[in-house]
């Protein structure tokens, strides 16, 4: 005679499958993998990297224009000192030659997240410097692009903790 195991006082062979432990344990393994896969897909789409530009071909063609603009800044003798004040005010003063403009555009480019990029307009003050205040977060590493129009461009970079950076034209 075959000995039958009892589950809650009922022989095992009479208990429906859905009331037993092992079928649910076996089903739970692939179900867990499916749920983990769906969570992974959600995370991947929600936090997609923005490191690759959509218009990389156009950006590649524009490199020569960028080099020309940086060469122009060097030819004009533009170099400036940028100070970041504790109250998030930016102070920019040119060393020698100063562009004849009332505003400058300072683009902040985050190296890892293009959604954090922003542009600040610096206004000329009576003493010849350019200033503006920003509510943006300056923490981390940033690439800077200073220009007044499409004629010249100065590039540099700044990191957290650094309050002063010297902007000089470099041809990359």
Structure description:
With 172 residues, the protein is of the alpha+beta class. It folds into 2 domains: 15-46; 56-167, Sandwich (Immunoglobulin-like). The chain is built from 3 helices and 10 strands. The strands form 2 sheets. An 8-stranded antiparallel sheet has the order 9-8-5-6-7-4-3-10. The chain has a two-stranded antiparallel ribbon with strand order 1-2. Strand 8 (142-147) and strand 9 form a beta hairpin. The model has no long low-confidence stretch (mean pLDDT 84).
Question: Can I get a quick summary?
Answer:
With 172 residues, the protein is an alpha+beta fold. The protein has 3 helices and 10 strands, in the order E-E-H-H-H-E-E-E-E-E-E-E-E.
Q: What is the chain-wise order of helices and strands?
A: EEHHHEEEEEEEE
CATH fold title of the largest domain: Immunoglobulin-like
Percent range for helical residues?
25-40%
Q: Tell me the Rg in angstroms.
A: 31 Å
Which residues form runs of ≥5 with pLDDT under 50?
none
- What's the main sheet like? 8 strands, antiparallel
Terminal Cα separation, in Å?
A: 89 Å
Going by helix content, strand content and strand pairing, the class is alpha+beta
> What's the count of strands?
10
Regarding quaternary structure, how should these chains be classified? single chain
Task: Please write the CATH class name of the largest domain.
Answer: Mainly Beta
With strands numbered from the N-terminus, the spatial order across the biggest sheet is 9-8-5-6-7-4-3-10
């Amino acid at each position: 005679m075959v000995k039958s195991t009892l589950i809650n006082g009922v022989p095992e062979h009479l208990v429906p499958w859905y009331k037993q432990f092992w079928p649910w344990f076996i089903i739970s393994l692939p179900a867990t993998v499916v749920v983990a896969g769906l969570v992974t897909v959600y995370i991947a789409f929600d936090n997609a990297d923005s490191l690759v530009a959509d218009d990389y071909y156009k950006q590649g063609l524009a490199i020569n224009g960028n080099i020309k603009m940086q060469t122009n800044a060097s030819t004009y003798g533009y170099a400036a000192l940028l100070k970041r004040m504790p109250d998030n005010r930016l102070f920019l003063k040119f060393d020698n030659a100063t562009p004849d403009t009332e505003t400058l555009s300072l683009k902040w480019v985050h190296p890892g997240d293009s959604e954090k990029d922003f542009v600040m307009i610096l206004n000329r003050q009576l003493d010849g410097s350019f200033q503006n205040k920003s509510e943006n977060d300056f923490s981390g590493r940033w690439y800077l692009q200073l220009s007044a129009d499409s004629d010249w461009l100065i590039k540099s970079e700044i990191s957290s903790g650094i309050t002063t950076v010297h902007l000089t034209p470099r041809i990359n």
